[in-house]
Design brief:
The structure holds two protein chains of two kinds.
Chain A lengths: L3 H20 L3 H26 L3 H31 L13
Chain B lengths: L3 H15 L1 H4 L3 H21 L3 H26 L14 H22 L13 H8 L4 H22 L10 H10 L23 E2 L5 E2 L5 H5 L13 H5 L15 H7 L6
Helix pairs in contact in B: 1-3, 3-4
The chains are: A mainly alpha, B mainly alpha.
């Protein structure tokens, strides 16, 4: 059992997160799918850091976590602004740009 | 290398709860299962020689990010039913196919890759991470500071609601109330303090009659009020002890007040 198996696990988690983004209409749930994809990428970085015996991968994962925290703050603020404007957080509702 | 038991525990702890993202109905259940996924990933980080990242994962993701998700769910309403109508025909199956295809593609590419793992085991303890973070990557750290400030200001700007009408001062509110014919004085407080000091009994006016408006409207709607007659001061009783017909020897209801007025100690 090498660290490579964690990379396979991360691929599965990434696919599940992508499916959640594609399938769910609730904006918060879709956003949680994005979070899961970010975490899968983090797992890959940490696993490769283990394989190569360097700490740089862990530093990158740390940066990804910081960026994800900032992204969550802005994303949730957008969801709240959307809810204030339309009383719904369904992703299918805002369709002004539809031709 | 990596413990096999740990891998299978982490795999079960991450893949099974993350399936809730696809199949669970209520957003709160999904959020709690994602918390479980984050904890499983933290265990994986510790097992892969990154204890610092494992702790950060728990603090940042389960502690801050997922709790913020729960707060937003609370703000927008947890019972927001998801609309299951499909705007694109067969979107569900297309989505499943696309995501499954992505997973198969990733796994096949990973299977093709050949990596010679080095045998040096490095542990990402805080000291080692900090040495690299503040030497090689110090510029990135500074930029991340800018990013976090920008995100905080952005969240403030996005959730700020501009005030469309000027704020009404207390003086204006009071003038409007008087103009509308409302009673400018406060309502009397409920409760007859000498005998019963709970909020469910109306205050008494100088004639001993209950003042209905002194009791909260909520209690009236819930029918949790009392009429206060029971606690009325029975002044005529104290003036003339034989006024109220009662069995011989039975104690008067306000015997204590009469006794203290007569200068005797109440029994």
């Amino acid at each position: 059992m090498t660290a490579m198996s964690f990379v396979y696990l991360a691929a599965i988690l990434f696919a599940i997160g992508a499916a959640a983004v594609l399938l769910r209409r609730n904006a918060i749930v879709a956003f949680m799918g994005v979070e899961l994809m970010l975490n899968a990428a983090n797992l890959v970085l940490v696993a490769f850091s283990r394989m190569y015996g360097e700490l740089d991968g862990q530093i990158m994962a740390f940066f990804v976590m910081v960026v994800a925290a900032a992204e969550v703050v802005v994303g949730l603020a957008i969801i709240i602004a959307l809810f204030r404007a339309r009383q719904t957080i369904s992703l299918d509702e805002p369709a002004e740009l539809k031709g | 290398m990596v413990s096999e038991v740990l891998f299978w525990i982490v795999a079960a702890l991450t893949v099974i709860p993350s399936l809730a993202l696809l199949f669970a109905k209520r957003p709160v259940h999904i959020a709690m299962s994602i918390v479980l996924v984050m904890v499983g990933l933290a265990a994986a980080y510790v097992g892969l020689g990154a204890p610092f990242l494992g702790v950060v994962q728990i603090v940042v993701y389960t502690g801050a990010v997922m709790m913020m998700f729960l707060f937003v769910m609370m703000l927008v309403g947890v019972d927001n039913a998801e609309d299951m109508r499909e705007t694109i025909k067969g979107q569900k199956w297309i989505g499943f196919l696309a995501a499954g295809g992505l997973g198969i593609l990733l796994i096949s590419v990973i299977g093709d890759a050949s990596i010679e793992p080095r045998l040096t085991d490095t542990v990402g303890n805080p000291e080692g991470v900090a040495m690299i973070l503040f030497s090689e990557y110090v510029l990135v750290m500074e930029v991340l500071g800018f990013l976090l400030i920008t995100a905080a200001v952005g969240a403030l700007v996005l959730t700020h609601v501009p005030r469309l009408t000027p704020r009404r001062t207390q003086v204006e509110l009071q003038a409007a109330r008087v103009l509308a014919g409302a009673n400018p004085v406060n309502k009397p407080m409920p409760g007859v303090y000498a005998r019963h000091n709970a909020l469910d009994v109306p205050a008494l006016d100088p004639q001993g009659q209950p003042i209905e408006e002194s009791v909260s409207r909520v209690l009236e709607i819930r029918r949790q009020t009392q009429d206060g007659q029971e606690f009325r001061a029975q002044l005529e009783d104290t003036d003339n002890p034989d006024h109220e017909a009662r069995p011989h020897g039975a104690p008067s209801r306000d015997a204590d007040t009469r006794n203290t007025r007569d200068g005797e100690e109440p029994k």
